[in-house]
Amino acid sequence: MKEFQTLKIFALAMRKRSLSEAARTLGLSPATISRRISALEAELGVQLLDRTSRTLKATEAGSKFLRHAQRAIEAIDEAEAVAREATDVPEGRLRIHSRTQTGLRLIAPLLPKFVERYPGLQIEHELSEHPVNLVEQGFDIDIRTGVSDDSNFIIKRLASSDEILVASPAFAQAHMHIQHPSDLMNVRCLTYQRDSEVAPWHYFDEMGVSRQLPVKGVISSNSGEVLRLAAIGGAGVALLFGATVRSSIANGSLVRLLPEYRFVVTSVANGIYAVFRRSDALPVKVRAFIDFISDELKANEGI
Questions:
Q1: Which helix (H) or strand (E) holds 213?
Q2: What pLDDT sits at residue 2?
């Protein structure tokens, strides 16, 4: 299936936007990658890549070809998954994406146990603070926080995770006057920011009504991990997913504030979700990872 492999090489090079990065991923030389793509261009009679640009870019014909090639790659990958289904043994490459904090605090610590259980798998775990397109970027699974309503994919809840207020013990001791959510408006807070806009905090009052808190973001970041570290350093109060700060609370580097109140920074239901492509036959490797992560996260729910 040399032609199919060439299609995958071309798609990977465009996803990485670099022949050398694609070569490194595949364990080939950049010259081999370039030669395979040049042969594909010669066979098609069109130029697919703009080699005059500093970064790898597709020509107009290359962009159109990539869209159709990606569908062909997906169909053949699915056919191969169906063929392997009879073995029921997870193997091959599994590409996972997650937000940085979720990946570092929840997913990464579980990967050694997972690969020990399934030695035939090669895991690629990519972290970012931006949504990904599973099909175009070639991911098998995206681990997300918050509900997604994308009907093109299957969405499975892995675990619940409320957002909780945390601060360093020293900061909490120095701000013992924090007895109600409204008190937070007069203390330093660490806020989540996405696309230049700070996500507002809300809490639910005694009647269950959502109330917005105009807190002061002394430090804002699009990474929950940055906010966690800032909170540990005593910079202020952070509102973070409970599952991602569980170990910090357990080792005493953070303490929870106002546990009797429920807080949110988004309007969607809290939780950790796996998002993956619809398929007539779910690949064994995808099912194995989702079942494993779900079991592990649920076993450790709670603070």
A1: strand 210-213
A2: 62
Backbone angles phi, psi at 66, to 5 degrees: -60, -40
CB proximity list for 109: less than 8 A, separation 6 or greater? none
- The DSSP letter of residue 219 is E
Q: Give the SS3 label for residue 241.
A: strand
**C-alpha to C-alpha distance for 284 and 292, rounded to whole angstroms:** 12
Phi and psi at residue 125, in whole multiples of 5°?
Answer: -115, 110
DSSP 154: E
Q: Which CATH number fits domain 1-84: 1.10.10.10, 1.10.1240.10, 1.10.760.10, 3.10.580.10?
A: 1.10.10.10
Task: Give the start-to-end residue ranges of the domains of the chain.
Answer: 1-84, 90-161+271-303, 163-264
Which residue in 137, 178, 144 sits closest to 12, CA to CA? Answer: 137
Q: What is the DSSP string of 227-239?
A: HHHHHHTTS-EEE
Q: What is the pLDDT of residue 268?
A: 45
Place of tokens 């995770």: 161
What integer pLDDT is reported at residue 225 of this predicted model?
Answer: 92
* Helices then strands, each counted (H, E), the chain: 11, 16
Give the distance from CA 175 to its chain's centroid.
34
Rounded Cα distance between 161 and 159, Å, is 6
- Report the candidate in 166, 167, 132, 162 with the shortest Cα–Cα distance to residue 277: 132
The neighbouring-strand residues paired with 294 are none
Tell me the sheet residues that pair with 153: 277
Binned average pLDDT, 10 residues per bin, the chain of 303 residues: 76 84 83 87 86 75 85 75 66 93 92 96 92 86 77 82 92 96 94 79 86 90 93 97 91 96 70 84 90 88 52
